[in-house]
Amino acid sequence: MLKRTVLFILFAAGFSGIKAQQTIPFRITKHHNIIVKTLVNKKDSLDLMFQIAMKDYSVSPERQRKADHMIFAKDGISDYNTVQIGKIIQKDVRFYDNQLTGHEADGKIGTGIFEGKIFKIDYDNNQFVMYNKMPDLKGYEPIPIILSHDGFYLAADNIIDDKQQETYFVLQSGFSGALLYSNEFAEANNLDTRLKVTGQKTLKNSEGKTLTAKQAVLPYFKLGNTVFKDVSAGFFSGEIKNQNVSYLGADMLRRFI
Predict the structure, then answer these.
(1) In a domain, 231, yes or no
(2) Any bridge partners for residue 134, and if so which?
(3) Is residue 96 part of a domain?
(4) Three-state secondary-structure class, residue 47
(5) What is the arithmetic mean of pLDDT over 65-88?
(6) CA-based, 20 to 30 A from 85: which of 25, 30, 35, 192?
(7) How many domains does the chain divide into?
(8) What are phi and psi of 250, to 5 degrees?
């Protein structure tokens, strides 16, 4: 079932009077991903990438730090773990094994730590801020979103050849770029010919089918009342068509609070 709610994005400075309940510091990589330092089961120190499109946690097969104090079942799931982030302790945490993550991360952390609370991603001060009740939202603009399968979807306008085309994007903090279009949107709007393509890379799978990743420039992108010019946007072409949704990635998320 789809749950409709509202995302508040700050377009102007000035949120004094908002009293934070708890804060979680983070650092931002050169790929715009958020990294949170965690201690798992009082033993394993892990750098986890924040993934807004998931609820639970995961560890990567390419992790640099050890995660030896989690017991995974045959299905790759480990339950009943404890995660400590600063002074915040979360119990009965589920981890998934062997999930790829972003650069400089040993795994991923989802939105479960914020369950039952309102949270702010404060890119200006490199921290999450958690509230027990809705803070003063003066200076913020509300953006309607749809919550589905732990993903937050919002509508935005893509302006090409002076024509405005609305589509839904899922917030995807694990994708380091600004925008990534679904195969359906890219083909329906002929992005291959209508956008200025700045780079591309073609791959083949074991069956010889091709996938071409293309990087392009979107003339204008409108989210709420804010319009961005010359936005980096990616899309795929070729025989492999597995990009089913469009992403609003970390490079776009970091431009807001």
Answers:
(1) yes
(2) none
(3) yes
(4) strand
(5) 92
(6) 30
(7) 2
(8) -65, -35
